[in-house]
Design goal:
The chain is an alpha+beta fold. The chain has helices spanning 2-32, 38-87, 102-150, 158-189, 202-212, 214-219, 237-254, 285-290, 313-323; strands spanning 198-201, 223-228, 232-235, 260-268, 271-278, 327-333, 337-345. The protein is 62% helix and 14% strand.
Length: 346
């Protein structure tokens, strides 16, 4: 129906233009007092009618084009305004879709809203990361500054002086470890770490690392059980050593004296499974859900001890395992036990 009306409109416009041309030429002939032949008059009317029609079509096309541009701008105005806000750093936006043009802009509106939400979450993570880094750096710096000022007291005993120096050394080591872990985590998250996989005996590596940690678990009289099946894995040996050391140290650290640690390594179908169990302090369900978050510590008061970590160790462990296309999971009962399970492809 709309097509018929358009055709009818064009025919009407052509007839109107030729009628106007006829009366216009007749008025001109009458004004100059000359009348050309009928053929010449028809020829002139046709040429002028075509010229006026062309001009009218050009003018109408421009008007129609302007109206179309205005309609398109209005159609996409909420989306462009939303994008401008995102570009300005405002991620608290939600573009509403017009039901009348849902088929045209629906997916684009959803994409803009999804991008705004993801950018908002990234911004929150960035701010939280900066806050955590600031806290982790500020605490040892405050300690170092306080003890350095105390060392100016000439009345200090040798014992107190040595104690203050030991604290300063511990805090500087903490800062150095934090910086190293931040650089390591940054490299892993950028997916540009030095990654050199090669086949090697995984059971030998874990056994060697257990011997390295022997002074720590013997000093706490821990009962350590190790059952390692001979397996070969193609992986980055240096990166995976960080995984095993972190998990072993954590088990030793959080298991009370006289407790038990059990380590097993065995193939499971197309995967290799490493499992470390301890009878340590365990974790609540909430702590298990957040244990791999950056800077997360089970103690919300962030009470420090000489061997307290930065809260980055398990985050790095997870990144390394994922880099090897593996998975890591935790099962724990608060005050009873904790189990970490790492699965790697053969």
């Amino acid at each position: 129906m709309k097509g018929v009306l358009k055709i009818f409109g064009v025919i009407l416009m052509v007839m109107t233009l030729f009628t106007i041309t006829f009366f216009l030429t007749s008025a001109i002939y009458q004004a100059i007092g000359q009348q050309p032949s009928v053929f010449v008059r028809y020829l002139i009317n046709i040429l002028l009618g075509c010229l006026f029609g062309l001009l009218a079509m050009v003018a109408w096309g421009r008007v129609f084009e302007a109206r179309e541009r205005a309609a398109i701008r209005e159609l996409y105005r909420p989306i462009t305004e939303g994008m401008e806000k995102i570009a300005a750093g405002d991620f608290n936006i939600s573009v509403e879709s017009n039901p009348e043009v849902e088929i045209v802009t629906g997916e684009l509106v959803k994409s803009v809203n999804r991008a705004a939400l993801e950018l908002k979450q990234m911004e929150q993570m960035r701010q939280e990361f900066i806050s955590n880094v600031s806290h982790e750096i500020q605490s040892p710096l405050t300690s170092i500054r306080g003890f350095a000022q105390a060392l100016r007291n000439e009345q200090l005993s040798v014992e107190d002086r040595n104690h203050y120096l030991a604290v300063i050394e511990t805090e500087t080591t903490r800062l150095s470890r934090l910086t190293e872990n931040l650089l390591k985590l940054s490299s892993l998250e950028a997916k540009q770490p030095k990654f050199e996989p090669k086949p090697y005996r995984l059971d030998k590596q874990i056994r060697s690392l257990m011997l390295t940690c022997e002074p720590q678990w013997t000093s706490k009289s821990l009962d350590v059980e190790v059952s390692l099946t001979e397996v070969v894995v193609s992986a980055d040996e240096d990166l995976l050593s960080q995984v095993w050391l972190n998990l072993i140290y954590n088990s030793i650290k959080f298991t009370p004296p006289g407790g038990r640690i059990s380590i097993t390594l065995q193939p499971k179908g197309e995967m290799i499974q490493f499992e470390i169990k301890d009878t340590g302090i365990g974790m609540s369900v909430e702590e298990q859900a957040r244990i791999f978050e950056r800077f997360y510590k089970a103690d919300p008061s962030r009470t420090r001890s000489d061997d307290s970590g930065s809260g980055l160790g398990l985050t790095i462990v997870q990144k390394i395992v994922e880099l090897h296309n593996g998975t890591i999971a935790v099962e724990s009962v608060s005050g009873v036990r904790t189990t970490f399970r790492v699965s790697l492809p053969t």
